[in-house]
Amino acid sequence: MIREIMDKQVYELKKLWANKRQLTFQVLNLAMIVFSALMIWKGLMFVTLSESPVVVVLSGSMEPAFQRGDILFLNNAVEEVHVGDVVVFKIKDRDIPIVHRILKVHRNETTGKVDLLTKGDNNRVDDRGLYAPGQLWLQREDILGRATGTLRYVGMVTIALNDYPVLKYVLVGLMGLFVLTSKEG
C-alpha cells in the first residue's frame, strides 16, 4: 500500500516536471502556504507583543500544572505580572526559554523597577541557579510572555522532531511532495 502511494507520487512528480506551467503553479501554491504560516506567526507576535507567542513545555519542571509536550499560548501585552503567574522567560546566553511560575515580585517604588524570582512547580528550589552568573532576579524585559492558554500534549510532535532531526527533514520533504503533486479542482 505504501509502495503504491510512493509510486503514484513519483509518477505525478514526473508528470508535473513535464508540464512547466503546472509545476510553476504548484511551487507558487507551496510558497503561499509557507508565507501564510509566516504571516500568521508575525501577526501573533504583533497582537501578543511576544517574540514567541507559542511555546512547547520541554521538561517536567511544571508538573502537575503543565506536562512535557503541552503547548502554551503567551501574551506579553499586559505589563504587570503577579505572584503565581506562569511566565516564559529567556536567560542571557541561553537559546531555550524556560516555563516557570513567579514566586516573588519586588517593586522599587521610587524607580518603578520590578525584580522577579521564579520556580518550577515540580522543583525543590527557586531558579537562581538557572539565571545568568551573578543574576539573582529576573527583570520584566526577560519575560517573553504570560501563559494564557494550553493545548495538552500536542507539542510532543515538536519534541519528537527536535529529538530526531532526520524525521523533521523527511516529514517536511513528504509534505512538500504531497503539496506539489496534489491536484486542484
Topology:
Blueprint: H1 2-18, H2 20-48, E1 54-56, E2 71-75, E3 86-89, E4 98-107, E5 114-119, E6 138-139, E7 143-151, H3 156-163, H4 165-181
Antiparallel strand pairs: 1-2, 2-7, 3-4, 3-7, 4-5, 5-6
Helix pairs in contact: 1-4, 2-4, 3-4
Description:
The protein is α+β, with helices and mostly antiparallel strands. Helices cover 38% and strands 21% of the residues. The chain has helices spanning 2-18, 20-48, 156-163, 165-181, and strands at residues 54-56, 71-75, 86-89, 98-107, 114-119, 138-139, 143-151. It has a seven-stranded antiparallel sheet with strand order 1-2-7-3-4-5-6. Helix 1 crosses helix 4 and helix 3 (156-163) crosses helix 4 (165-181). The chain is elongated, with a radius of gyration of 22 Å.
